[in-house]
Design goal:
This protein is of the alpha+beta class. It has 3 domains: 3-59, Winged helix-like DNA-binding domain superfamily/Winged helix DNA-binding domain (Arc Repressor Mutant, subunit A, Orthogonal Bundle); 68-284, BirA Bifunctional Protein, domain 2 (2-Layer Sandwich); 291-333, SH3 type barrels (Roll). Helices cover 29% and strands 24% of the residues. The protein contains 9 helices and 14 strands. It has helices at 3-13, 21-28, 32-44, 68-71, 77-83, 96-105, 157-172, 247-258, 267-284; strands at residues 49-52, 56-59, 87-90, 112-116, 137-144, 178-180, 184-187, 190-201, 208-218, 291-295, 301-308, 314-318, 323-326, 330-333. It has a 7-stranded mixed sheet with strand order 3-4-5-9-8-7-6, with helices on both faces. Strands 13-12-11-10-14 form a 5-stranded antiparallel sheet, with no helix packed on it. A hairpin with a 6-residue loop joins strand 8 and strand 9 (208-218).
């Protein structure tokens, strides 16, 4: 790490507390003037740092700039060991999933994480655009190798990610997010997160080589900034200018949950872990018992969402009594006319 990065790490670890320039200089073996220069560079980058006479430098608690140094203090010890030098932060990317796939093809390791403050062409399912303005959202992708997941069924990766995001939001707030099958997170009737899972499978062997999970969270995105066509349905985790925590915190909580590996569970317990994920997913589903419109495969039709099966497929019941298991497709909740 550069001197600036080391100092940022110290400030982030002690966020809201003052650290003397002399202490920083002694810790890093540099002059106090070099510390001062690094502080000025961080301020140019947008960090709000108070210089308090006889106390030192203090990073403001609500300073919300995404950085690896800002994420590390919120990571569990296990996660911190796994992601050392694997978190890649970008001011802007076309799409974190696009960059992640390129890195996966080039041989990136399991647990590699790509984060952007802004996406110029963020994507959702079926090629839809994901609105990704700077300074208020979390746009991240994780590269996962199936053999190191805590799942025996890699197709449950999206469900696992959805539960992980819900649990992470619950861990940093009093919010109770819900899941709209298969990959959207809602809060108080508004979509706050979309998940896009992509994978590459070896053509000859049929073995899945890697999975990229893309997660887009509207952290504190203002309603007015959403495009008009989604403004009626899009929302944010925190709908004000002063959220109680910062994006680095939520990013770390998501990482803590997704980077579970099989080595943490005995083989005979893995099925129990999958059942635990499915149970948590089912508990948060906002569509069960609801009348839904199913589209994306043939002619749209109405049905009642009944349950999910052990593969994460949505079971629906058509008006004629026929039960179907959906592995793909799109659903929307219908309001029955009186």
């Amino acid at each position: 790490m550069s001197t600036k990065e080391y100092i940022l790490s110290l400030l982030e670890t002690n966020r809201g507390q003052s650290i003397s320039g002399a202490h920083i200089a002694e810790q890093l073996g540099i002059s106090r003037n070099a510390v001062w220069k690094a502080i000025k560079e961080l301020e140019k980058d947008g960090y709000r740092i108070d210089a308090i006479t006889n106390k030192g430098y203090c990073l403001c608690k609500d300073n919300d700039i995404i950085s690896a140094q800002g994420i590390y203090p919120f990571l569990s010890q296990r996660s911190r060991e796994k992601v050392t030098d694997k978190i890649h932060i970008h001011a802007s990317l076309e799409s974190t999933n696009k960059t992640a796939k390129e890195m996966a093809i080039a041989g990136a390791e399991h647990g590699t994480i790509i984060i952007a403050d802004y996406q110029t062409a963020g994507k959702g399912r079926y090629g839809r655009t994901f609105h990704s303005p700077p300074g208020c959202g979390i746009y991240m992708s994780l590269i996962l190798h199936p053999a190191q997941l805590c799942l025996n069924t890699p197709t449950l990766a999206t469900h696992f990610a959805a539960v992980s995001v819900c649990e992470a939001i619950e861990a940093i707030s009093d919010k109770q997010p819900k899941i709209k099958w298969v990959n959207d997170i809602f809060l108080e009737g508004r979509k706050i997160c979309g998940i896009l899972t992509e994978a590459v499978t070896d053509f000859e062997s049929g073995v899945m080589q890697w999975i990229v999970i893309g997660i887009g969270i509207n952290f504190s995105t203002s309603a007015a900034s959403f495009p008009e066509d989604v403004r009626h349905i899009a929302g944010a985790v925190f709908d004000n200018d002063h959220p109680p925590t910062i994006r680095n915190h939520l990013i770390a909580e998501v990482i803590n949950r997704i980077l579970l590996t099989k080595s943490q569970y005995e083989d005979e317990q893995t099925k129990d872990k999958e059942q635990e994920i499915l149970d948590s997913y089912r508990e948060r589903l906002m569509v069960l018992g609801k009348n839904v419109l199913v589209s994306g495969a043939g002619e749209p039709y109405e049905a009642t969402a009944i349950d999910i099966d052990n593969a994460g497929h949505l079971i629906v019941k058509k008006d004629n009594g026929e039960h179907l298991s959906l592995s793909t497709g799109e659903i929307s909740i219908k309001i029955k006319s009186k």
